[in-house]
Amino acid sequence: MDHSGHGMTMDLPPFTLGRGLAWSADPFFLIACLLGLALYGWGVARLVRRGDKWPVGRTVAFVTGVLSIVLMMCTKLNDYGMVMFSVHMVQHMIISMVSPILILLGAPITLALRALPPAARGSKGPRELLLMLLHSRYMRIVTHAAFTIPLFIASLYALYFTPLFDFLMGSRTGHIAMMVHFLAVGLVFFWPIMGVDPGPHRPGYLMRMLELFAGMPFHAFFGIALMMGSSPMVKTFENPPASLGIDALSDQNAAGGIAWAFSEVPSVLVLLALVFQWYASEQRQARRTDRAAERDGDKELAAYNAYLASLNARGG
């Protein structure tokens, strides 16, 4: 079963969904995901204990996002993804575009800021360090559209169409680093767009939609390039194990189709989230206006009526 020195299984039987979903844990991702769930659960429990509310929907989104990573990295999908381009592409698309959106909808930074206790005066604790990071120049750069959009695009073209991909796939550490990179790129790309957690950049809703659509077409073009390839374009997958019973070019075409189709998935998810956020923001603004009017007896309306009355008197 061992091959290439990093746990790939060269004698895998032909791929089926049942075989792909069989448990095969990657220790790094399993521990990281369990730790993430535990920390999030601690934060929610801390808020509940002191009588604060935390939306159930956010918890569901975060847990689903983390479990989507477990599904990709702790099942046989990860084993098949080492030797089948199509399965690898499913991993890439989920971890870079679906998992980050769900995790960000869970608002983990907001939860941390609300749950972490302030440090004693004159000292810096985890909450203060998190705030320093959020307001740092580094964070302003890495979450700016001028950085995130090119990075999002380069993660496809500069990785798959250069020897870098084959180098990373040649070791267990390289493979883990690549998957962590996909997740990180997805998080920094969608973070300013989703707008749930506080961050250095908070563009308006229309600008967020433009940022979203600026990156998505390149995913479609990448998928089309793979589908139109007349020969295997990535060395790692050019000679699949005979036990799989697949043709490398057909598998590459399937991978391209997956990349092309997935360019639509995050667009729909994010647009739905943005429309909902926009509506909720308008509702909050309307409620604030109503409350202000109740407090001051609607001075603006009274002043406007007085102005009309003065005009009428002058006209008389």
Write a brief caption for the model.
By secondary structure, the chain is an all-alpha fold. It has helices at residues 17-20, 27-49, 56-73, 76-81, 85-105, 108-115, 126-134, 137-142, 145-160, 164-169, 172-194, 205-228, 248-262, 265-296, 299-315.
What would you note in describing this structure?
By secondary structure, the protein is an all-alpha fold. Helix content is about 70%, strand content about 0%. It is built from 15 helices and no strands. The protein has helices at about 15-20, 25-50, 55-75, 75-80, 85-105, 110-115, 125-135, 135-140, 145-160, 165-170, 170-195, 205-230, 250-260, 265-295, 300-315. Helix 5 (about 85-105) crosses helix 11, helix 5 packs parallel to helix 13 (about 250-260) and helix 9 runs parallel beside helix 12. The longest helix is centred in the C-terminal third of the chain and has 32 residues, at about 265-295. The relative contact order is 0.11. Residues about 1-5 have low confidence and may be disordered.
Question: Top keywords for this entry?
Answer:
globular; 316 residues; disordered N terminus; mainly alpha; 15 helices
Shape: globular
So how many helices?
15
Terminal CA distance reads: 98 Å
Give the % helix: over 70%
| Major sheet | none
Order of helices and strands: HHHHHHHHHHHHHHH
Q: How many distinct beta strands?
A: 0
Query: Beta-strand percentage?
Result: under 5%
**What value does the Rg take, in angstroms?**
25 Å
Class from helix and strand fractions: mainly alpha
Mean of pLDDT = 86
- Uncertain stretches: 1-7
